[in-house]
Every structure is written in C-alpha cells, then in structure tokens.
Amino acid sequence: xxxxxxxxxxxxxxxxxxxxxxxxxxxxxxxxxxxxxxxxxxxxxxxxxxxxxxxxxxxxxxxxxxxxxxxxxxxxxxxxxxxxxxxxxxxxxxxxxxxxxxxxxxxxxxxxxxxxxxxxxxxxxxxxxxxxxxxxxxxxxxxxxxxxxxxxxxxxxxxxxxxxxxxxxxxxxxxxxxxxxxxxxxxxxxxxxxxxxxxxxxxxxxxxxxxxxxxxxxxxxxxxxxxxxxxxxxxxxxxxxxxxxxxxxxxxxxxxxxxxxxxxxxxxxxxxxxxxxxxxxxxxxxxxxxxxxxxxxxxxxxxxxxxxxxxxxxxxxxxxxxxxxxxxxxxxxxxxxxxxxxxxxxxxxxxxxxxxxxxxxxxxxxxxxxxxxxxxxxxxxxxxxxxxxxxxxxxxxxxxxxxxxxxxxxxxxxxxxxxxxxxxxxxxxxxxxx
Length: 434
Hints:
single chain; 434 residues; mainly alpha; two-stranded antiparallel sheet; 2 strands; 60% helix
C-alpha cells in the first residue's frame, strides 16, 4: 500500500515556518537590543556601531528592517536602481586597502559601483516581483524589501519540495519529509528568509538536481542557468549534469548511477545518438550561463570583488592563510570568535562527512556538494561556510536518515532550532553571522 505524497504537508510546514520566523525576528527587535559593537572578528567592530549605516539608505528603511543586513543593501540597490545606482558607493579602478578611498564627484578615472560584486538573478527576481507589490503604496526600498523576502521564502519552499522529491525513493515519504524539515530548521536556515541569495539559490539548485534525477533535462538546464546567475557556485552544477549524462550514455537510470564508475572501468557499451548530443549541450548549460555572465559583468565583478571585498575565484593561497588564522583563533582569548569559528568548522566537517556518506546512493549529488564546499573554502576569506553548505543536499539527506531514530530527531531539532534562533537574533541587529 503506497502512502500519499507529502507535498501539501511540506507546503503547510513551510508556510508556518515562514510566519514564525518573520514574527520571531520582529519580536526580537522589539523586545531587546544588543550591546554594540560586535567584536566577533577583527573588522566587525567598525561595521556594527550605531552610526555605521548612516550613509547606507538601503539598510535604514524601517519596513522589514530585521531582514536586511550586510550584503542586503547591494541586492536592494540593484533591484531598485540597477548596477550603476547613484545612491550606492563606488570605488576607483586603482582601489587598494593600503590607500582606501571612494569615488567622489570630481573623480577623473573609471569608477565601479560596489553592486558589481553581486550576481544579477536574485535582484532581478526581486525587481520583477516588486511591480505587482507597488499597489501596497510602500516606498521603493520597502517594496523591494518585501519582494526580496518573498523571493527568498519561495526559494526555500522550492528547495524543501525538491529535497523531498529526490530523497523519498530511498528514505520513503516520512524520510523525505524529515529531510525537508531539517533543511528549514538548520542553524543557518534563517538566511532563507532574509535579503540574501541563499533561499533562491538552493531552491534553483535543488530544483535542478531533482529534475536531473527525473531526467527532465530542459527544465533542469533552465534552473541551472538561473542558479548560475544567482551565485557563482551554480556553475558547479555542470559536475552532476555531466555525471548524469555519462551515466545515461551507459543506459543507467537514476537509481543505478552509483555503478557508473564500475561500468566505465569494465568498458560498458556507450549509447551515442543525436539525442545524447543535445543532452550534452544541456548538461553544459551552467558553463554557457557562466560565460554569458562573464562577458556581461565579469570585468567589473573581478575588480570590485578582489580589490574591495578581498575575495576571488579559487584564491587557494589566500584561503589557506585565512583559514589557518581561523584555526589559531579557536585558541584565542575572544569567546565570541571561538564560538563563531567552532560553528564554521563544525559545518565544514559535517558537510564533507555527509557528502562521503551519501556517495553510494547519490554520487552526482555528493560530487556537487564536495565541489561547493571546496569552492566556497577557496574564496579567499574564512567566513560564511555554515550558510554556503546549505547548498549541499547531502547534509539533509544524512540528517533525514539519522532522524529515523526518535532520540536523534528530538535532540537535533532542539539544538538546531536554538542555534538558528541565536543566529537569527544576531542578524536582526546587524551583528555578524557569516
């Protein structure tokens, strides 16, 4: 006897989760305040004073302000005023941290808005949804804020449904339900309801992976393109796409993908056809999407990302130095820093462990998760990993497996929700959470 799929149940859970999280952040903001500044990292104190945002209008709009912090201003600026928004700060082409300065009205050389360090699809989706929301009569920034939160929440719903879809065959309906639930209560899952790309990105990414397992190539490719235009890590979807294409070339179904490497060694017959050539082009869609973005915005992106934000694609040497310093900070005198990096390293180690554990059943998904983790680790700075690993489905697949034990289910739920509450409260007051 088959059970009824839990899609509607997940939608109801997501709706309750969204209402509770939005209400929680409003209550936190109204009930207490935190002592400023935040000294968790050596640079956060200067960014978390009471007057730190006086010249940043996108962070000062009162409406849904608890969902706006840090990078949120760039997404809102792009959505409202475009990449060249005159209200946004800009840096000269020769900017360095040794001699930092912003472009003034009499700047003679080229200037680049800080907006260029961010990918376009999330602010584009925010702008599109803003049009029907204008009937509410809010200010342009408030309208964009409401729209951006809605986009993030809808992305979270897509991610939960997709995760359930590609785990229920192994874990059953109850196991798929648990995986979706653990996604929504993960400590860093509060980012899925903020003006950040996490919600939309994992929605598109998990959706692409779910469609890939169903062999819905065109829809999977479309979602992968949008994911790539949301965050650079979306380009890594080419790995599971090519893995799946090679498995299909051997006539393997999604359930048999794990035997791909064995069959490759044994020289199984390959099934070439024009259809498979067309699917190869679809499998490479993340690459095409990345190249289009690179031609359109890649130049300014590199300048702002590297010179102002000190980040880069595959900045291995810089990343090793940064994470080495993070290890030493675990033994430093600042308890806030110790807690922060303990969470970061715990997230990294568990995510890698989860990807290894799911290799036998989900090799393509596991490969993607490992690639996302290593790619994020090599960005040049030691921060944010507990939210970057949200894009690794293996984390929630393993939790879904372990959650079959009632004691683990209850214990993990309590620990995860308490941590999420802590991090959400910090974000609400613009304190650093990664």
